[in-house]
Design a protein that fits this description.
The chain is α/β, with parallel strands linked by helices. It is about 50% helix and about 20% strand. The protein has 7 helices and 6 strands, in the order E-E-H-H-H-E-H-E-H-E-H-E-H. It has a 4-stranded parallel beta sheet, sandwiched between helices. A two-stranded antiparallel sheet has the order 1-2. Helix 5 links the parallel strand 4 (about 85-95) and strand 5 (about 115-120). Helix 4 packs parallel to helix 5.
Length: about 180
């Protein structure tokens, strides 16, 4: 039985129902394959999670000391691959050379999609003190600490904080 393109199959009838739906709609096998490839369980679950999932603020603190090339690559992956609407990016420049700092701040200024807070330490205070400078200005419910050699994969934010949703007793989490 179908209603507006929705087909319901009883256990064991799925292949027959798919064939019947294809015949009724005049759809070819290649079209069905393309449709199926775009509509995986993972895609559906991701859409539901987006609709009903946690929309907590996530602050990402990136620590930079010189090496503008790596820093920009890290920031690009953050800006274009996070796929998360409530993201705060904080760049802590830990006493970099002025030329290195300028290259990164110019990239930030000329990138329409990049909303990045920059904290500048006049000298290199080391990893812990540098990260703490970023944490102090963070406003997120979750705080992620990154060094500039990190390149992120698409959707990494939800994948990471999903572990906190599922395990309320977690206090800290590290990616692989």
């Amino acid at each position: 039985e179908s209603v507006a393109g929705v087909y319901v199959a009883k256990p064991g009838e799925f292949p027959i129902t798919v064939r019947r739906a294809a015949l009724e709609r005049g759809v070819t096998k290649p079209e069905l394959r393309r449709f199926a490839a775009r509509n995986t369980w993972q895609e559906r679950a991701g859409e539901l999670e987006t609709l009903f999932g946690d929309h907590s603020r996530v602050s990402v603190v990136v620590l930079m000391w010189n090496n503008s090339r790596l820093t920009i690559a890290c920031l690009e992956s953050l800006v274009y691959r996070s796929l998360y609407e409530n993201l705060e990016v904080i760049l802590v420049d830990n006493g970099s050379k002025p030329t290195e700092s300028t290259l990164v701040t110019d990239w930030i200024r000329h990138n329409d999609k990049a909303e990045i807070v920059v904290v500048r330490n006049e000298d290199n205070r080391g990893f812990a003190a540098g990260m703490n400078a970023g944490i102090r200005v963070a406003t997120g419910d979750y705080v992620v600490l990154l060094y500039i050699d990190t390149l992120l994969t698409p959707g990494w934010v939800r994948k990471m904080i999903r572990h906190f949703w599922r395990n309320a007793h977690f206090g800290i989490l590290g990616p692989l």
